[in-house]
Amino acid sequence: MTVIKYSQAIRDAIAEEMRIDQNVFVMGQDVETMGGVFGCTKGILEEFGHDRIRNTPISEAVIIGAGVGGALTGTRMLVEMQYVDFILHAMDQTINQAAKVRYMTGGKATVPLIIRAQQGSGRGNGAQHSQNLEALFCHMPGLKVVMPSTPYDAKGLLKTAVRDNNPVLFFEHKVLYNTKGEVPDTDYTIPFGKADIKRSGKDVTVIATSWMVLKALEAAEILEKQGIDAEIIDPRTLVPLDKETIINSVKKTGRAVIVHEAHEVCGIGAEIAFIIMELAIDWLDAPVKRVTSAQAPIPYSSKLEKLTIPSVDRIIDAVKEVMYIK
Amino acid sequence: MTEAFLWIEIDGINITKPKYDMSDKLPDKKRGQIADNNSLLRIYEQMLRIRLFEQKAQELYVQGLVTGSMHIYTGQEAIAATAGELLRETDTITSTHRGHGHCIAKGGQTDKMMAELLGRKTGYCGGKGGSMHMADFTKGNLGANGMVGGGLAISVGAGITNAIIKKNDSVTICFFGEGATNEGVFHESLNLAAIWKLPVIFLCENNLYQVFTSVKESLPVKDVSVRATSYGIPGITCDGNDVIELYDVLESAIGRARNGQGPTLIEAKTYRWEGHYTGDGYARGGYRSIEEIDLWKAKDPIARMAKYVIESAIADNELLEKIEAGLKDEIEKAIHFAMESPWPDDEDLYKDVFYEKEEV
Q1: Does A65 sit within 8 Å of B156, measured CB to CB?
Q2: Do A164 and B156 lie within an 8 Å CB cutoff?
Q3: With an 8 Å Cβ cutoff, is A189 touching chain B?
Q4: In CA terms, which of A96, A213, B124, B301 is 20 to 30 Å from A54?
């Protein structure tokens, strides 16, 4: 095991997969010498050369659209959106083309396309550079959606994504790039659709995604001191979603809090809460609670930004609420 | 009014070469020099196959056997057929919502196409695609597309695979209409293809109408080909109803692409005889005058080609009749095949959403 940064885990996964498979091609804005805004592809150009990684113009539609065309013709296309917000320039390519082409052609098409993007708030980037858009893509059949919260998960899941023959939206978080964690020194992958129990507990289930996993873990430590034992579940992939791990936990604790940074309405929390209602309502001792960003664009002012992002305190409050503790 | 706002003269007969024509960048060649007789006959047969297929498809549509939106290519056949003749099986195409002709020209089988139109399991897409999503990856047809301009970026991706990853000499022809050149992705795609010198031929079929709206209202330039200047690539306008001219222009552009010289924008001026979609009641005497339609029908690419092959002694009437009879028989068999084919199974509804067998 070696302790590395989240951004290094991404970089290592890309380099390792590019060594294994000559058909992996990386493109995006500033990915060559700069390694992207967060340095996740730094060093790739030196090792693999200009025919394996290329800077593109600021042209999101053709980055993803050519990603589809390259994938259809046998290239493993690993494309980068500088900010997830920019993928909105390429929704036709993502939703009408990438997601549907296999189905529309009766299974003839294969689309090994990975769209990497960093999302999330926490750095004062304002309303168009801080969004969490995963729910848009979870809604569309044909897309897989991945949201790693640790360096270990980031590396293992990205390697799986590169080997997958489907379009994968791989959402990193800008606040997590500098976080550190242990990563095995040998080759490993993490299967999609397998949630990770980040902390075992018996009193309440907290389902959290991406950066929110770290906040939930922080909340759990404080709650422990108050005699509340929280179980923290990170689904890691939203499509496919590991319902079983979530349901088993809820059946054990009888209480659930869902924490995500995306807006509340039609967010993944709504889906997970419904699944709990369908499959575990008889085990519930309290209504399911959600902790999410406000139903308002992400504000610039650091005061307001802090207010909208789910905080450790808000998670603690929600947990106490479902436990009827004042 | 500035010159840029001079509209295309739809006189139906004369297509003037644009003065921004960059054909000087293409190799100098005598008209029809390279098209051999067998090629020309094959193109004739493919054009006729497309037309006869679509005539029958329209009949089936009227009978309610084909549903949804079906866009007929009649009048534009020369473009697909000539392109198909010049491409190798390993070359690829991206097609459009008006894609039957492209599919046939790239080696598509009329029986599987007809079955697809009827939504049957034996169709190219197992019945799940229909007219607007016909694809045949075994023949390099990366698919028709329901989105205007949908194939543009995809063709660039195919160019990346061929030129950068596989480093072969395969090329991609991207078919699209003049309406697609007003989509943002047109700019992004030609720009990237030009920067990376990708082997893509952007083949714009300017049929003068985007749905019900004339190019007079949708284009500020007389010729779409001038848009190539923005990308520093050759742009050329040609008569899309003239096989010989198309052959020369396409052959040059394909040659450039194969030689690593990058993309070309070709504008083939043409006309769709039918409406935007089957059942478009405004196409005749509505947004288009009867006179205009008749003028373009006089430029029928198939009749012109028949005349050419007979006058050039490449074929006689008897041979052409034999070709037509063979094609009619093929289409009848295709209909029979489609009608006798099973519907998709209920469980097919959930199949093919994802590639299921993971490689991990």
Answers
A1: yes
A2: no
A3: yes
A4: A96
pLDDT digits (tens, 9 = 90+) for A295-324: 999 999 999 999 999 999 999 999 999 999
Task: Give me the interface pTM, i.e. the ipTM.
Answer: 0.96
Mark whether A263 is an active-site residue: no
Check for a shared fold between A2-183 and A196-322. Answer: yes
Q: Helix (H, G, I), strand (E, B), or coil: what is residue A27?
A: strand
| Nearest residue on chain B to A75, alpha-carbon basis | B161
pLDDT tens track for B257-298: 999 999 999 999 999 999 999 888 888 889 999 999 999 999
The C-alpha of B119 sits at a distance from chain A's nearest C-alpha, in angstroms, of 11
Determine the length of chain A: 326
* Residues A164, B360: C-beta atoms closer than 8 Å: yes
Please state the CATH superfamily assignment of the domain spanning residues A2-183 in this structure: Thiamin diphosphate (ThDP)-binding fold, Pyr/PP domains (3.40.50.970)
The confidence score (pLDDT) of residue A92 equals 98
Does the beta-carbon distance from A69 to B125 stay under 8 Å?
A: no
For chain A, state the CA radius of gyration: 19
Domain boundaries, chain A: 2-183, 196-322
Q: What fold is seen in the domain B15-338? A: Rossmann fold (3.40.50)
Mean pLDDT by 10 residues, chain A (326 residues): 97 98 97 90 96 98 98 98 97 98 97 98 95 98 98 98 98 98 97 98 98 98 98 98 98 98 98 98 98 97 96 98 95
User: Exposed, middle or buried by CB within 10 Å (0-12, 13-18, 19+), for A102?
Assistant: buried
Nearest CB to A73 within list B161, B196, B359? B161
β-pairing verdict for A237-239 and B200-206: unpaired
Does CATH place domain A196-322 in 3.20.20.70?
Answer: no
Provide the CB-side half-sphere exposure for B237 (13 A, CA): 22
pLDDT at A58: 97
Backbone angles phi, psi at A4, to 5 degrees: -135, 165
Q: Name the catalytic one among A50, A89, A129, A263.
A: A129
